[in-house]
Amino acid sequence: MSTLTANKVSLFRIFFMESKAELQRLIRTPAFSLPTILFPVMFYVFFGVVFSKNPSSAPTYLMITYCVFGIVGPALFSFGVGIAVERGQGWFHLKEVSPMPASAYIVSRIVLSAIFAVIIVLILFMIGATLGNVELPLIKWLSLAGIFVFGSLPFCAIGMTLGLYLKANSAAAIINLIYLPMSFLSGLWIPINMMPKALQEIANVFPPYHLAQLGLKIIDMDAGGSIIKHISILVLYSLVFSYLAIKTYYRKNKS
């Protein structure tokens, strides 16, 4: 085995072990993992299935939007609150000075967000198919799952930036103040066309709206706009907040 191959294997193992450790830590913290999974599921069951006034299309539409609501939370809180708390405890600095590459910490958080995204999406898909009578071709189920998992990346970047800015004792409250209103204004709780015109225009500013529109476009229930537009805005959010996170990280290290 060449040195380069050995280094790749070693780096992959570091990523794997760090991701495994993060997952085990969260499993032992049900105060985070259970609400993260159960809240979007409960909301969908109540508003998308049980109390739906339009049983023909509402369960399908709201399954998409609550999937987006479900994957945004873990990305924001895993990075945002997680990093802020670890910074406050000194654990973040300890990892910085350890031999572990800094990329392993970021990769492990992204993997963690992706795992939670997969779990939430699968549960909502199963509820939609069984209780909501949602019927889609297999290719559409798979396309939606792929969009949602990869669509968590912009929110990981946003969460990372917030985690580097916020203090441990205020991070959860501030991120909730961002997460919940942003979800509502993005049309994740109620269909966007039921909102006032002014709020429909505001929705275009928020990344959850564009991720939801990508999913809704697959089932022909979107509010318009090209696929390129929605993807471009999500990529732009990813790049801008990744840049802000890197800049903040190095600035704090110098101070």
UniProtKB/TrEMBL annotation:
Give membrane topology per the record: Multi-pass membrane protein
What is an example of a GO molecular function annotated in this UniProt entry?
ABC-type transporter activity
User: Which key words are in the record?
Assistant: Cell membrane, Membrane, Transmembrane, Transmembrane helix, Transport
Q: Where in the cell is it found?
A: Cell inner membrane; Membrane
Query: What's a single GO CC term here?
Result: ATP-binding cassette (ABC) transporter complex
As for family, the record states: Belongs to the ABC-2 integral membrane protein family.
| Positions of transmembrane segments | 32-51, 63-85, 106-129, 141-166, 173-192, 227-246
Where this protein primarily resides, as one coarse class? membrane
> What name goes with this protein?
Transport permease protein
One Pfam family cited in the UniProt record for this chain: ABC2_membrane
InterPro entries cross-referenced by the UniProt entry:
ABC2_TM (IPR013525), ABC2_TM_bact-type (IPR047817), ABC_2_transport (IPR000412), Nod_factor_ABC_transporter (IPR051784)
Domain (ABC transmembrane type-2) spans 27-252
